[in-house]
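User: Structure please.
Assistant: Input sequence and predicted structure:
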Amino acid sequence: MNTIAQILEYIISRALEMNRLYIPDESAGINYSAIFCQNDSEFERLNKEAAQIGGIIENTPTGPLYKFHNSFQTLAGPLWLLKIRKPDPARSQRGDADFTLKNYNLFKEKHLPDREHFKIIDRGHFEMIELRDQKFQVLSYFSNIPLTIQLGIER
C-alpha cells in the first residue's frame, strides 16, 4: 500500500519527465495534483490519510479537493492542493500534475499544433492544455487560470 507522499512523488516525477521530453524549454511550477484511485478501498484509505494532512476545501462529483495544512515539497516546488479522485474506468493513469506557466498564451501557440500529445480543454471560466503520452501513465495540465489563483490560495 502506497502512501499519498509515495504516490505524489511518482506522479510528479513522471509528469516532470514527460514535460522535459515534450517541452524541454519550459519552466513550470506545480500548482495542483490529483491521484486517480484504482478502486473504492484505495479511495477510502487515501481520503482518511488526506484528512490527517489537510482539509477539504471543495467536494466535487469526481472526489474531494484538499488543501494541505503545510505545503508538500516536490521536485516541482511546493504543492498545496490535492484531489483524491474516485475510481473511473476512463482514467487508467495514476494521476495528474497541474503546472503554472509564465506565459500561457505563448505556450499554447507553440505547443498546441502537436495534436498527438497536446489537447485544449475548455472549462467555461478557464481553459487548460493537457499533455498526454501513454508511456508515462500520468497526465500534465497547464491551466489558465491556475487553480490556486481561482481559489485565492497563496503560493
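The helical segments are 4-22, 40-53, 104-111, 147-150.
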